[in-house]
Design goal:
By secondary structure, the chain is of the alpha/beta class. The chain contains eleven helices and twelve strands. The chain has an eight-stranded parallel beta barrel with strand order 1-4-5-8-9-10-11-12, surrounded by nine helices. A two-stranded antiparallel sheet has the order 6-7. The longest helix is centred in the middle third of the chain and has 17 residues.
């Protein structure tokens, strides 16, 4: 059968018919909002490279989330900015650090909000690398214990999910073992399994003050040119005990999201990263694109590619837009 019997426009002619046959739907339950936590009280400082995103002290972060939790926001992922940095990044596992205090406070006030933490050392080291630095080289194995300590401190503080983003080999296994040994068997690991060495992280590094002093992250994060390697990375992390997988960034890596969706039956996250978000904001500020429409289109495409949930700075906006519609 062909035209005129077949007319795809029939299903597009009315908004309620389009709604009936829509294949992908975005909801507030699909998104996780990143928060940047600092010490102190009463702090709510806008981050210039990420419009609409702030450095929050714990009290202000709770205040910020209250209306969004009412709108059905699924969860948050916490990043910490320590008061001091050192060579080892030892503030990362300080039980009184901003992230640890936030975990406890959030779990208390919002027991049904998913509390995730980013596990990495780059915000905490004075050299800005994600692991132990020696003679200009980021050493893999000595970094594992520190990452495991950090993840464990988040679990102790009340995190539901720990998400290692450092890209050291073996870190998922080290974290799983530490959680088991300390009797936290129910804390999940969301592995940043497929994390590319991407220029899209630019605005985040200003937000988290985590740019490497010297060098770059190409020695540990993945080469953006590689597709098959993503499956190997994901497989390794599953073997080490990851409960969920992540692809990061999202929009330039929709093929990778689709590959992982096809290959694995594990929950899949995508991180719509700082550069992807800020480019839309900047273009919208100039009146070149419609912010709401383009953000909805981008997030829908990430979900359509196969992501089960999306970490995005637009999570709050999304909750509000869906409410207005
Ligand atoms: C820490 C980390 C980074 C991001 C998440 N966790 C920065 C990096 O790897 O350089 C980037 C998030 C974003 O750009 O929004 N390693």
């Amino acid at each position: 059968m062909f035209f005129p019997s077949l007319r795809p426009r029939r299903l597009r002619a009315k908004s309620y018919i389009r709604d009936l046959v829509r294949e992908t739907r975005l909801t507030a339950a699909d998104v996780i909002l990143p928060l940047f936590i600092v010490s102190g009280e009463g702090v709510e400082e806008p981050i210039s490279s990420l419009p609409g995103v702030h450095h929050h002290s714990v009290d202000k972060a709770l205040e910020f989330i209250r209306p969004l939790a009412k709108l059905g926001l699924r969860g948050i992922i916490l990043f910490g900015l320590p008061d001091q940095k050192d060579h080892e990044g030892s503030e990362a596992w300080n039980p009184e650090g901003p992230v640890q205090r936030a975990c406890t406070a959030f779990k208390k006030e919002f027991p049904h909000l998913v509390i995730m933490t980013d596990v990495c050392l780059c915000q905490y080291t004075d050299h800005g690398h994600c692991g132990e630095l020696c003679d200009g080289e980021v050493l893999n194995d000595p970094s594992l214990n520190r990452l495991a300590l950090t993840a464990l401190s988040h679990a102790v503080a009340g995190a539901d999910v720990v998400a290692p983003s450092d890209m050291m080999d073996g870190r998922v296994g080290a974290i799983r073992e530490a959680l088991e040994r300390a009797n936290y068997p129910d804390v999940s690991i969301l592995s940043y399994a497929v994390k590319y060495a991407s220029a899209f992280y630019g605005p985040f590094r200003e937000a988290a003050d985590s740019a490497p002093g010297k060098g770059d992250r190409k020695g540990y994060q993945m080469d953006p040119a590689n597709r098959r390697e993503a499956l190997r990375e994901a497989r390794l992390d599953i073997h080490e005990g990851a409960d969920m997988l992540m692809v990061k960034p999202a929009l330039s890596y929709l093929d990778i999201i689709a590959d992982l969706r096809r290959e694995f039956d594990y929950p899949l996250a995508a991180y719509h990263v700082s550069g992807e978000y800020s480019m839309v904001k900047a273009a919208a500020e100039r009146g070149w694109v419609d912010e709401k429409q383009i953000m909805l289109e981008v997030l829908t495409s990430i979900k359509r590619a196969g992501a089960d949930f999306i970490i995005t700075y637009a999570a709050g906006d999304l909750c509000r837009w869906l409410q207005d519609d």
